Amino acid sequence: MLTGTARETHFVVADWQAVAFGTGPADRDRAEAGVAAAYAAAGLDAPERYVWMPSPARGAVAAAVLARRGDAGASVLHEVRTRPWEAERAAACSEQGPEQWPRVWAETGGLLWNQVQALVTRVRGAIGDLAADGDPPSARAEGAASVLRGATLDAALGQHDAPWLALFEALGRLDGPLAGLAEAARSAGWWWPYERLVVMSERPCDLHRDEPGRLHRGDGPALAYPDGFALHAWRGMPIPADFVESLAGLTAERISAEQNAELRRVMLEIFGYDRYLAETGARPLHRDETGVLWSIDLPGDEPVVMVEVVNSTPEPDGTYRVYYLRVPPNTRTARAGIAWTFGVDEADYHPEKQT
Prior knowledge:
This protein is an alpha+beta fold.
């Protein structure tokens, strides 16, 4: 059972969500104190030194060098994080039982997991990509990329450990062996623990997401760290750093000629589906009282199928706003497309009033 009320659990999750996507300089003193507490809880001497890096990318490079040289001692990630983490998780799972456990996770860490894990995966991939030195990359670059990606797996994730820490706090399990890990997570980014030294990294200085929580920005990096390590994305989709700027004067012909299917979808969003439909002379697949079903055939990609609907509520100026809703490519009627957006079957969609 959760230790607090539903309202208290909501605030716990919201607090850890703020941690996971927090930006700004790390609280270094607080983070180091948390790490020292985690070492003590594991029965280890406090590290002799803390080395701060401006991003997890630089942290991974430092960790890879330390792992090769061995002068900081062995990694103690298992002792400091993995072992106490697994013990608390096993105890919590046993305490909740097989029926209660999935519900507790869904109401706490599960609310954060997909968004945070997507971010972690992107960061890990981008760190590995730093080693690329050509297209295709050389065997040496492939090896270096593998080493860097491996180094990211040896890190405690700091703020990005938030989903599990939200669960543990909601269950009243942050006052024991995990207290130091939670303190470090609230105060810093990724970190790498060794016997005598800890590599710590800063949090992002900039983070932009869309309403569903995906990395998204059209005029700069969606995620950026103080040293310039950055990710560019449009609605969660990776894009080149200068991609949006390069779309000045975008035309329907250029969109149709783009070979990269993912970039073409971004171009369509920026250009506007309605404008593309008009300029390419597209014809509707189906029309009924709910809207109009359109399809855009794209070479080397599944068609983009959309339902055009008109908002029944007028704007302040008396006009009626038109929306284009993306629906599955196998949709055959406008009603079926609208029904899909509401999560019901076409036969069950009988709106009294459209909004």
